[in-house]
Amino acid sequence: MVATAIKVAQFDLSRFCLKEDGAEATQSLNQLEGVMDAKILEAGVTSYISVTYRQGTTNARDILREIRKLGYSEAKYVPKKDKDDIREILGAEVDKFRRKFLFCLAALSPVLILMWVVPYSVPSFLVENQIINGVPIYILLLLVFSSIIQFALGKDFYSGAYKSVSNGSANMDVLVVLGTTAAWFYGLVLIMIGYDEMDHSGMDHE
Questions:
Q1: pLDDT digits (tens, 9 = 90+) for 128-175
Q2: Residues near 173 by Cβ (< 8 Å), separated by ≥ 6?
Q3: Rounded to an integer, what is the distance from CA 114 to the centroid of its chain?
Q4: How far apart are CA 156 and CA 97, in angstroms?
């Protein structure tokens, strides 16, 4: 009788998994033929699921297909490395989000300065140097920096929303994209049709 090899595979769910959802997912996976144990590995920002299975009875591809059927449409297999450790995976995830945070902070800082420092230190800058349709240059600067934040830093939300809609569902990415894009587009429309800074700033109370 040939011994059946026992394998362990890890899958990135690509989003945070609530405790109740994790319990439901692991319960469903544990009912699959060949699966010996399935458990959620929480990582704060995102969650991973570890599955122990009998090779030959099932495989990582079939398990991944089942995970996606459970609603984790963006789940992906985490290839095993020479030093496969969940701490290394989480460390790489933390580094990724740290870089994104620092980039976002660098793009957001000029916006905060334009909104909260310039109006009180150089108020004349708000209405001077009008460029297009009566729009002052500081509004155009806000548009540039906010667009960087919206589309460069928000590309993961757009990607997630597209994949979700393509699969016939709507997740939180879709909600975030709809809300932020509507706000950004509304600001763009104001710039295109003209923008009276005096009226919108509340400086003219007559």
A1: 777 777 778 888 888 899 999 899 888 888 988 888 888 787 888 889
A2: 156, 157, 158, 159, 160, 161, 164
A3: 26
A4: 12
Q: Where are the domains of the chain?
A: 6-84, 94-201
Structure tokens at 139: 């509004």
How far apart, in whole angstroms, are the C-alpha atoms of residue 8 and residue 37? 9
d(CA 74, CA 63): 14
| Cβ-contact 67, 75 below 8 angstroms | yes
Residues in the chain with pLDDT values less than 70: 1-4, 15-21, 42-46, 80-89, 127, 194-206
d(CA 150, CA 182): 11
Residue that has been written with the tokens 């319990």 in this structure: 23
pTM over 0.85: no
148, 141 Cβ separation under 8 angstroms = no
Q: Looking at the domain covering 6-84, what would its CATH class be?
A: alpha beta
